[in-house]
Design goal:
Layout lengths: L4 E4 L3 H11 L1 H19 L3 H18 L1 H14 L3 H8 L1 H10 L23 E5 L10 E8 L5 E7 L5 E7 L7 E4 L3 E7 L14 H9 L4 H9 L7 E7 L3 E8 L2 E6 L4 E4 L22 H13 L6 H7 L25 E9 L4 E6 L8 E4 L3
Parallel strand pairs: 1-4
Antiparallel strand pairs: 2-3, 2-11, 3-12, 4-5, 5-6, 6-7, 7-8, 8-9, 9-10, 12-13, 13-14
């Protein structure tokens, strides 16, 4: 597998130390990349980014002490400053807050005058229920589209209660954001923007919520982890559990909405389906023009088969309709390098068989490999 698979066990602190030690060089590259991206794309100088990260670190230590133990372990194992490691964990809140402020009014603080010219577009996520699958298995997956050059890893861990988890993360971020556990529960995600996003509320971060969801024993527990408290920024979560349950949770900072499957499938991209029902404003200028088209394209591909196989889903993730901002996304040469995005990892999870098929980089030119949940 081109993406490293890191085996973790022991206490949360021990797991963090091993993560930091094994992935030290990749973590250093991620820190350098994000500091550069924060400055070039979001107009945030390094001292301000690290100040915000330190504030978040204090909040995580108070509200999520077990996660903070692992976070501190990553810093110890890598020998890198804690505020730099924390920055990686909260990069979602810090960057998406900026994306949500791009079109702020002229009366907003001066920092809001800086930011990307458009909202990033990416991450096409889906769930396929057993009745639409050729082998009767429940599948969940997505293309994870993000900043080219970000270093990733799979974390494979066994908890003291026997639960095993396999999840994709960015080097330096504890837990994982896309993955499955031995109870047949899986998680996929999409970034969202809304007018009420605000990093400074310092609420439980996106990556902490993902970690808690992946450690859950059932769907209800996972949904409580994702929606159980207010958020700083909007996010979408697609959660499923074998044998046959899948729901989508759209979340704004102060509200959330559950969506269910239609005709045995569920597809989500980077927009709220009905923002007014969540009491938020989602301005047209905040959306990349291809987010709705990508969702419709995936739905149309799924509709070409009465029942789909895992290989079909892998092929659909290679689709180039609307290139370069397609399901398989490629960097747009019309944009400055500091605003380009691409598909970094493709994943199709079989929650019935407790395995995933993953491809590093653009799936159109890569190869999917099967990773089975250990233990």
């Amino acid at each position: 597998m081109e993406i490293p698979i890191v085996q973790l066990e022991g206490s949360r602190r021990d797991q963090g130390r091993r993560h930091g030690s094994v992935l030290r060089e990749a973590i250093e590259r991620n820190i350098a990349l994000y500091l550069r991206r924060f400055e070039d794309e979001a107009g945030l100088p390094h001292p301000e980014v690290l100040r915000r990260a330190a504030l978040y670190g204090e909040a995580i230590a108070r509200t999520s002490p077990r996660y903070f133990e692992e976070l501190a372990g990553v810093a110890e194992g890598s020998g890198l400053p804690l505020d730099h490691i924390t920055m990686l964990t909260v990069r979602y809140e810090l960057l998406y807050d900026r994306f949500s402020r791009v079109h702020a009014t002229p009366h907003a603080p001066s920092e809001r005058d800086h930011g990307p010219r458009q909202t990033p577009d990416g991450c096409t996520a889906f769930a396929v229920l057993p009745e639409r699958s050729t082998d009767g298995h429940l599948r969940l997956g997505q293309n994870w589209d993000w900043i080219p050059g970000v270093e990733t890893a799979f974390l494979s861990r066994r908890q003291s209660d026997g639960l095993t988890i396999l999840a994709l993360t960015e080097a330096g971020i504890p837990g994982g954001k896309i993955g499955l556990n031995s109870r047949g529960l899986g998680l996929a995600i999409n970034g969202l923007n809304s007018s009420s996003d605000d990093w400074s509320s310092l609420r439980k971060p996106f990556h902490v919520r993902c970690d808690e969801a992946l450690r859950s024993l059932d769907l209800d527990e996972a949904l409580c982890a994702l929606a159980g408290a207010r958020r700083s920024c909007s996010t979408n979560y697609l959660v499923a559990q074998a044998p046959n349950a899948a729901v989508d949770l759209e979340t704004a900072p102060d509200s959330e909405k559950l969506l269910s499957c239609d005709d045995g499938v569920l597809v989500h991209t980077n927009h709220f389906f009905d923002p007014k029902s969540l009491g938020i404003e989602q301005r047209a200028e905040d959306l990349h023009p291809r987010t709705r088209e990508r969702r419709e394209r995936m739905l149309s591909l799924l509709a070409t088969r009465e029942r789909v196989a895992g290989g079909d889903l892998e092929a659909f993730l290679c689709d180039h309709d609307g290139h370069p901002s397609s399901i398989c996304q490629h960097p747009d040469p019309a944009l400055p390098e500091s605003e380009r995005y691409a598909t970094l990892v493709s994943i199709v999870m079989d929650l019935t068989a407790l395995e995933m098929s993953a491809c590093a980089g653009a799936p159109c030119s890569g190869r999917f490999e099967t990773i089975r949940l250990s233990g």
